[in-house]
Amino acid sequence: xxxxxxxxxxxxxxxxxxxxxxxxxxxxxxxxxxxxxxxxxxxxxxxxxxxxxxxxxxxxxxxxxxxxxxxxxxxxxxxxxxxxxxxxxxxxxxxxxxxxxxxxxxxxxxxxxxxxxxxxxxxxxxxxxxxxxxxxxxxxxxxxxxxxxxxxxxxxxxxxxxxxxxxxxxxxxxxxxxxxxxxxxxxxxxxxxxxxxxxxxxxxxxxxxxxxxxxxxxxxxxxxxxxxxxxxxxxxxxxxxxxxxxxxxxxxxxxxxxxxxxxxxxxxxxxxxxxxxxxxxxxxxxxxxxxxxxxxxxxxxxxxxxxxxxxxxxxxxxxxx
Length: 321
Known about the structure:
Elements: H1 8-15, H2 19-27, H3 34-47, H4 53-60, E1 65-69, H5 80-93, E2 97-101, H6 106-119, E3 124-128, H7 135-142, E4 146-150, E5 164-167, H8 169-182, E6 188-192, H9 198-211, E7 218-220, H10 225-237, E8 242-245, H11 248-254, E9 262-265, H12 269-274, E10 277-280, H13 283-298, E11 308-311, E12 314-316
Parallel strand pairs: 1-2, 1-3, 3-4, 4-5, 5-11, 6-7, 6-8, 8-9, 9-10
Antiparallel strand pairs: 10-12
């Protein structure tokens, strides 16, 4: 005999709530109190209830899918994994699933958008690695497709016209620089990315602001550990007594250059393993905020102005500084 199918009414009876409340927990959990959500989720688990996705799609016209690109790694370090895990978890709690794709550049990513829309019809996209002249956002906006960016729309006035969530890199490097100033350092160097990188320039600005005088103690790199080491050697030779780096990958190279304090950015597992002081991004919170923004958009409950969320990183102090 086939097991009897569990219905939403069965879940409602087990949780002592209405069927509408169960539906709200499954589709719009923000509308329900946490205590009630947990009771319904427990009933769902105990009864083995499974949402009929096909029926829900026919009823709502939505796929409950969010699409996001898998980011590339450099020197074996990738902070994106933590963001992706947080996004998947937050999406599931809101009744969505995440589909992944790869792309080499903006144009190939836009081509992938088109393919995904034809094959899977995702409800929304989460874009990462925003940059100056980002054509992906205009492509999606022109087609009135829902999306949020993890990263600011660099170069656009007033924070941009679409919703975004980002981490305040300038606040982070300013805090790192103040930490070194407090330890007595006055000649603090900065190792960054090429000029024109929105994220890189933002992180550089915090260092410059905290010093109130940029001087000449900075170098630009391609972001690799090898160039980080070379840049650090030059800065130490020029008199730098401590270094703030744009990423942990760069900081890993800088550590090989000499016995000066080094601070990285991203707080990767490598940083924790080798005792590198680094700035930690609140990636789980950022992912949850992205899902919340998209849920508001998809539920037609978005404000007149798009959501702009800027989160602060925290300095994790270890033996290198």
